[in-house]
Each structure stands twice: as structure tokens, then as C-alpha cells.
Amino acid sequence: MNWLELAAILVIGFVGSAEFGSAALVHPVVRKLTPDDQLTFEQGLLRTYGRIMPVGMTAATVLGITIAIDTPSAWTIGAAASLSVALAVTIAGNVPINLRTGRIRQDTAPEGFIAMRRRWDVFQLTRASLQLAGFVLITIGILTP
User: Fold this and answer.
1) Tens digits of residue pLDDT in 7-46
2) pLDDT (tens digit per residue) in 47-104
3) Burial classification of residue 44, based on how many CB atoms lie within 10 Å of its CB (0-12 exposed, 13-18 middle, 19 or more buried)
4) Torsion 39-42-46-47 (CA) sign
5) What pLDDT was estimated at residue 131?
6) For residues 127 and 23, what is the distance between their CA atoms, to the nearest angstrom?
7) Which of 11, 105, 117, 140 is 20 to 30 Å from the Cα of 61, by its Cα?
8) What are phi and psi of 115, to 5 degrees?
9) Cα gap 139→111, rounded to integer Å
10) Among candidates 68, 50, 59, which has minimal Cα distance to 86?
């Protein structure tokens, strides 16, 4: 395994695991909070995940595509496709909702906030599943001779 393959497994694994953990383990608990507490929590996550994940998701996609070009196989091409679709879902679905959430300046959740965040949950589960699949596929593609 070369340094690029190692970087791909580590970065894609981190991003996929963090996002899937968020979708499957964190946000189901967040949905049980009051709307105002959900607003506080989501804005807090924007300050943590929102700083790291744009770089991480982009790097994961670039690494996946690079590995697929360097070592083309059904596994690596599938990983690159999965990561690319996840990034597209993020940009088209999650980012606009995150921007709206971040612009809320009041302490109480505005009307429509919960419905907006439930739409975000659908995008989140989609992208997180695609990222986790990308991690599994790239790992198999790299480790399969």
C-alpha cells in the first residue's frame, strides 16, 4: 500500500464514519429535543462539523477519484462514484439548509424550522450512506489484488 492509498482509506474512512455516525446515532437523539434546543444544537454542529467536513468531504472525493484513475476496478470506480454523488447531495441538499440554519439569529426556532431540518435529515442519511459505502468500496478496491 502506498501513501496515496493509505491517505484515501484514512480520509474517506474518517469522513464516512463521522457522517454516518452523525446520521445514525446523533441526529435521532437531536430530533427528540424541543425545537429551540434543536436550533441551538444544530447551530453548534455547524461550528464544528461545518469547519471540518467541507474540506474532508472534498478531499475524500478527490482521493477516491484519484485512486479510481490510478487503479481502476469495479470497487474503486464504485467508490469514486459513491463519493461524488455524496458530495453532490451535500452541495445541493445539505448546504442550503445549513446556510439557512446558520443565519437564524433568534433564540427560538422559527416556523418551518423542524420541517426544514427533517428535509436535511433525508439528505444527511443519503450522503452518509454513500460516504460509508465509498469507504467500504475503496478499502476493498485497495486491498484486493
Assistant:
1) 999 999 999 999 999 999 999 999 999 999 999 999 999 9
2) 999 899 999 999 999 999 999 999 999 999 999 999 999 999 999 999 999 999 999 9
3) exposed
4) positive
5) 98
6) 9
7) 117
8) -60, -40
9) 44
10) 59
HSE of 118 in the Cβ direction (CA atoms, 13 Å)?
7
Tell me which residue of 12, 123, 107, 124 sits closest to 67, measured CA to CA. Answer: 12
* Distance separating alpha carbons of residues 124 and 45, to the nearest angstrom: 13
- 139-145: average pLDDT: 93
C-alpha cell recorded at residue 1 = 500500500
Residue ranges of domains in the chain: 3-143
C-alpha cell at 83: 463519493
Amino acid found at 12: I
